[in-house]
Amino acid sequence: MSVLEVENLRIEIEGTGIDIVDEISFHIEAGEVLGLVGESGSGKTTVGLSLLGHQRRGAKIVAGQVRVDGKDILERSPAQLRALRGGTVSYVPQDPSAALNPALRIGRQLEEVLAAHRFGSSHEERLREMLEEVLLPTERSFLRRYPHQLSGGQQQRVGLAMAFACRPRVIVLDEPTTGLDVTTQAHVLATVRMLCRAHGVAALYVSHDLAVVAALADRVAVMYAGRIVEIGRERDLFLASAHPYARRLVEAIPEISGEHELVGIPGTAPRPGHRPTGCFFAPRCDYAVDICREQFPPRERVAERREVRCHRWQEVLAEAVHDRPLAAVRTNGASADALISIRNLQAAHGERPVLFDIDLDVAPRQCVALVGESGSGKTTLARCIAGLHRNFTGELALRGIPLRPGARNRSRDTRRDIQYVFQSPYSSLNPRKTIGQIIGQPLRLFFDLPRRDQHARIVHALERVQLTSSVVDRYPHELSGGERQRVAIARALVSEPALLVCDEVTSALDVSVQAAIVDLIAELQREMELGLLFVTHNLALIRTIAQEVAVMSAGRIVEHGPVDRVLDQPEAEYTKRLLADTPSLESALAIAE
Description:
single chain; alpha/beta; Rossmann fold; six-stranded mixed β-sheet; 23 helices; 22 strands; 23% strand
């Protein structure tokens, strides 16, 4: 018998009759992990929250059933739902730092969960068990720490300990490894898998990272525009998708091998209230015919425990995923002269040294990837180059001219030549300014141009990143995450820089948008002859964009060389461990065989 059963769930924008998600049906058995994947805005988190009988403000559950052990939780009173959350159904949020109370010690927060649900008589013994289960220290000194004294991985493990504290029947994991480095991510995923199987928990794993889902989930449900369009065993879905959208998602997964071309999905998913007649994916689908534009496809059974909603699923299934196009051979078009030259760079945060003996060059038309775990010093090095971190010594030069620490100590031309694209497209854009004002600010700083010429350059910068002039007067909150990141890139490019520093620019994006952004950056690099420093923890991604890679550990570069050599024949033990911990579709499917 299934632990969790969801039937014909419908959630609307309150008071409008417009659905956010509809016709959602699936079940999860004890110890099973169901991956829920899809682009941003597809309704994944909305469905996840419904398993707790909860919705964000403005959304309302209007139909359907959510049964845990045969009992519909949607029929319970608010008081009964509060008792259920954390005890019977638990939730692990995306950002552990926002989920933990910064004013309370870790031990106090873990105890509060046990006390709230009256779980066990000896809290001290249970606390020790909770910490051991998630591989955290059991010393009393650890329990006395505050959240800010823990690493991101430790914070996420505390969140897992709280979620599993009362032995729930169902757990919802909402992007719990986004932003974590591959080693920490591997430990967190192993912990989730072990706890679910050991305690018979039914888990819904919401994610946009399909490589992670392939490594963790037993089955996968693919969502598009508020509907589940395909559901089945992870191996079946990733090797032979029956829905065109699922297939395009698989083609957008970066591979460690770099064998196949990384292909994004043109266009964007329609929002609630703006969805077309017929199949919602038809405007973006290569298989669409007249019936697709007229009728939404019914559920059809492909095999046991596998369903799809596509009029042409048999034709799609006939074309296997492994027929995807091969990647083009990369060439290193870099010039012999270094654009950025770094020698014996040492950096510190206050009195604490964080970078040691860094030597690195970036040439024009060359992309150098900087990879490593969180805390390895990648972002500190990038910020030294951009003038955002001043506490460093050693040689740092642009075209042979020494760069002084701190952007304010550099000339206007130097500041224009080095531009930085930050990790989060949500916090790096001023919410009170329009897109035109945001992109126009560097023009006002670095160029003396008439207003008409400024507007023309703003429009040209937007067109370069595949946005139209229609967004000029819009605000950041009116754009999707992928569109915001394109605006951030346009703001950097409007200055006509020589070097672009990209700091984890794809970590918060779903795979289809990630593929489009990486392809865009690579194309712009060739067009504008940019030098590119690409900071990332996603080793599979660097095959697509970089010619060289520098691997950082504990503030030092432990391996450096051409991408193919470093990834195929790593010499440093640290690099070998990173590669082993990196989730990939190939390795997940090989293990499943």
